[in-house]
Write a structure and sequence with these properties.
CATH architecture: 3-Layer(aba) Sandwich
Shape: globular
Largest sheet: 8 strands, mixed
Number of domains: 1
CATH class: Alpha Beta
Low-confidence stretches: none
Distance between the termini: 35 Å
């Protein structure tokens, strides 16, 4: 497939490298322009392009940038993309550590629902709930007992099917979490966020959370708030406590 990636942070770089190795044609862009990505692109076998070029004639487009940077993307960027193109959102909202408070996002409290509204295009949320190191190193063959499951949310079934194939090819087990309105169950503060767990354990935790955001909103947002404080103090200690 022809894949464009917007964002060259840890997740964006990891996905670009792995997609190239799987035989896909990959373009990567950031806010600083192609020249800043020339060396990286040459090292991994991708093409350094502008943000506008990263969405042109692509089968899959990955948006892997901080939540606050969504607001800085060119207006109507996704208006002319290929019919049926899949747009993946890997983002997470970190108001204390990185993004600042985004009032329009906090109205719903659901990260990717807000992103979908800003992009004016249906997104599939995936790769947000796994550390880049795990994504890089912990892929396993289908059927392996220790294969990590990854939550996938989105409103377009055909788009999710393509994402399921990509997740599987990367060595992870896709788990259909439901619509983008249900993606709160995989965002920071949830019991599956950044946990390297298998399909059965992920399913158990998702079931325990239920489907009512109004019941879980305060619990998850409060947990994320405490996590941000813990990360700020000692990221390694916070990471070790995840279970």
């Amino acid at each position: 497939m022809n894949i464009g990636i917007i964002g060259a942070g840890a997740i964006g770089k990891c996905l670009a490298s792995k997609f190239v190795k799987l035989g896909h044609v990959v373009s990567i862009a950031n806010s600083r322009g192609p020249a800043s990505l020339k060396q990286l692109a040459e090292e991994i076998g991708a093409m350094a392009v502008t943000v506008e070029e990263a969405v042109l004639d692509k089968d899959v487009i990955v948006v892997a940038i901080p939540q606050k940077s969504i607001l800085n993307l060119p207006r109507n960027l996704f208006n002319g993309i290929s019919k049926g193109a899949v747009v993946i959102d890997t983002g997470n909202y970190y108001p204390r550590l990185r993004d600042g408070v985004i009032p329009s996002l906090e109205q719903s409290g659901i990260d990717s629902l807000w992103t979908q509204e800003q992009l004016e295009y249906p997104v599939v949320k995936v790769f947000n709930s796994i550390f880049a190191t795990s994504l890089s190193d912990l892929g396993r063959p289908k059927g392996a007992k220790d294969r990590i499951a990854l939550a996938v949310s989105g409103d377009r079934l055909e788009a999710k099917q393509i994402v399921f194939q990509l997740v599987d090819a990367l060595g992870f087990e896709p788990f259909d979490l439901g619509t983008i309105a249900q993606s709160w169950r995989q965002q920071p503060g949830s019991s599956i966020y950044c946990r390297d767990i298998n399909f059965d354990e992920l399913e158990k935790r998702v079931t325990a959370m239920g489907t009512d955001w109004t019941e879980m909103r305060e619990i998850i947002i409060d947990k994320h708030r405490l996590d941000e404080i813990a990360i700020e103090v000692d990221f390694s200690a916070w990471q070790k406590k995840l279970a």
